[in-house]
Write a structure and sequence with these properties.
CATH architecture: 2-Layer Sandwich
CATH topology: Alpha-Beta Plaits
Number of domains: 1
Largest sheet: 6 strands, mixed
Number of strands: 6
CATH class: Alpha Beta
Helix content: 25-40%
Number of helices: 4
Strand content: 25-35%
Order of helices and strands: HEHEEHEEEH
Radius of gyration: 16 Å
Distance between the termini: 35 Å
Structural class: alpha+beta
Length: 171
């Protein structure tokens, strides 16, 4: 059986710690219709959010235990108070989104099931919403976001739970 990217990421992201008063990050995947349906039924209890908007992957028939995937994640937090970017940086980005991003990088490097050069493309996107843009994969909520793209090889091996549970540098 080959590796299913979303299943492996669900396992991995379960190790992420809570982010202050925001709580444990939630992981979902899909398109704009999926995320907006989730937002509608969540009652606002969906943030901080790791939303995977893409999954283009390559399988190798000779080695079904490894899948290479080009992934894009939207790390999002809702900020309902209108503010300038200097305040937005001090609240959404410094306190939630940057620590979440750093924790994901730690998770990927320590989990023992990810092989990568760990080169991330990151876009800071305040007011990431469908009201602000006509692009796909925008949210009906107005959120602050980091959009992170990375290529990962994900294996079917065992997650190094000892390393992740003993991680002392979670942000």
């Amino acid at each position: 059986m080959s590796v299913v990217v979303e299943e492996r990421l669900t396992e991995l992201f379960s190790f992420l710690p809570e982010i202050g008063e925001w709580g444990k990050p939630k992981y979902y995947f899909g398109d704009d219709k999926e995320i907006n349906s989730l937002i509608k039924v969540s009652g606002g209890n969906i943030y901080p959010l790791i939303y995977q908007t893409s999954n283009r992957f390559n399988e190798n028939a000779k080695n079904p235990n490894v899948v290479e995937a080009d992934l894009t994640f939207v790390l999002a937090v809702q900020n309902t108070v209108p503010m300038f970017n200097s305040n937005r940086w001090a609240t959404s980005y410094r306190n939630v989104l940057r620590p979440l991003y750093e924790n994901i990088k730690i998770l990927f490097s320590k989990a023992n099931i990810i092989v990568s050069d760990f080169e991330y493309q990151v876009d800071t996107t305040p007011n990431y919403s469908e009201t602000e843009s006509k692009e796909k994969n925008k949210f009906i909520d107005i959120v602050d976001a980091l959009v992170v793209s990375v290529t990962l090889k994900i294996t079917s091996g065992c997650i190094n739970t000892v390393a992740l549970n003993n991680e002392k540098i979670w942000h």
